[in-house]
Amino acid sequence: xxxxxxxxxxxxxxxxxxxxxxxxxxxxxxxxxxxxxxxxx
Length: 41
Description:
Layout: H1 20-39
């Protein structure tokens, strides 16, 4: 499983970058995952 922001095609290259919108989407996902995990659902 690969979990994180950005496109794998852009990863680990000299011109690697992540759009701010992708960081925000990842942050939202991780927050929802943490909420789910702490509720035990």
